[in-house]
Amino acid sequence: MYIHERENWTNFNWDSNKLSPVLSSVRHLQGRLLGRMESLGFDITERATLESLILDVVDTSRIEGEFLNPELVRSSIARKLGIEHAEFTKTPRNIEGIVDVVLDATQNFKQPLTKMRLFGWHNSLFQTGFSGYQPIDVAKYRTGEMKVVSGNFGREKIHFEAPAAERVPHEMEHFLNWLNHENSLDLVLKSIIAHFWFVTIHPFDDGNGRIARAILDMLLAKSDNSKIRFYSLSNQIFKEHHRYNDIIEKTQKGAQDITLYLEWFLGCFERALLASEQNLELILDKAYFWDQHQSTNINDRQRLVINYLYDNYGKESGYLRTSIYAKLTKCSSDTALRDLQDLVAKKMLKAEDSGKKTNYVIVSPKGIRIPKISE
């Protein structure tokens, strides 16, 4: 029996004694990080927010198996937020769509979530009327059955069956009424419950996971009472996406006691905040770096490589050399050398001789060695 087949299935309950310690830790970390962000000044906070939003957009899509170009995501977000000196390029509709959803959720968190707003989000995600090569109903609730299935044809495994389509309008009306008018719950707990409630209804033909995480982000922004983004829960969920899928499936096959689900999600959020605290120095370094060089004229290849070095700090070993630059930017070795020498002349990179080859590292405002070498 799935949870939605139980009578009064949304009468969720949980063990507050088990959740209280981790919820207190989460709230403490939120307050400490937000306070630090607010003390940094508008320009730096704006750029740090940009970095967190990029992670959110890229990783909420990666959870669904869609890999977006971070530089195109950056351009889209920067343009929509009106960040000066950002490089603006034409971006595909699928990137524009998910960026619109995430920005509306996190920047307009005080607005109620209505059926038409949800339909607008869904339309943004599927502007062509297709999911891949499959036509779907867009900006309307699904009219057919919904199963979450994995495995090859003939050997499929059904992980979950959503409520029948005729139930969806009533279930969503109940959900939205609760979301907009329930004021007694802690907003962090409410955000996690809302995420589970929505994915259990699975009201759309596709995009339910991304919209559920947008609802989660909207309520978390409301819990911070701030448009400043200083963490990415989607980034942490992606790191733990197998456990994420498992805990949702297990809870959907259980009763109304959702303690284990809430406990895992709070722990995931705590890990996201701790990771954000650890990465804040790098995010700030990147923000300070671009603030220092906001008037420096560089080309798209150079900007791509510098952002790549920051974004992959600690993830890859090795040195930045002419051959690596050429591979990353798909240019010739001569062009790569000219670009690198230009960045050195503009004091954005510094060259380090290493025998027959030259290594390049970022001139970090905070003295961080980028790229981080683990060889």
Write structural notes for this entry:
The structure is a single chain. With 375 residues, the chain is mainly alpha-helical. The strands form 3 sheets. It has a two-stranded antiparallel sheet. Strands 3-4 form a two-stranded antiparallel sheet. Strands 5-6 form a two-stranded antiparallel sheet. The radius of gyration is 22 Å and the shape is globular. The mean pLDDT is 92. It has 2 domains: 3-286, Fic-like fold; 296-362, Orthogonal Bundle (Arc Repressor Mutant, subunit A). It has 14 helices and 6 strands. The termini are far apart. The longest helix has 34 residues, at 259-292. Helix 6 packs antiparallel against helix 7 (187-201).
- Report the CATH superfamily of the largest domain: Fido-like domain
Topology-level CATH name of the largest domain: Fic-like fold
Quaternary organisation? single chain
Overall number of strands: 6
Q: Which structural class matches the secondary elements?
A: mainly alpha
Ordered list of secondary-structure elements with their pairings:
Blueprint: H1 16-38, H2 42-62, H3 70-81, H4 93-107, H5 115-125, E1 130-131, E2 134-135, E3 147-150, E4 157-161, H6 168-181, H7 187-201, H8 208-224, H9 233-239, H10 241-252, H11 259-292, H12 300-311, H13 322-329, H14 333-345, E5 349-354, E6 357-362
Antiparallel strand pairs: 1-2, 3-4, 5-6
Helix pairs in contact: 1-11, 2-3, 2-4, 2-9, 2-11, 3-4, 4-5, 4-8, 6-7, 7-8, 9-11, 10-11, 13-14
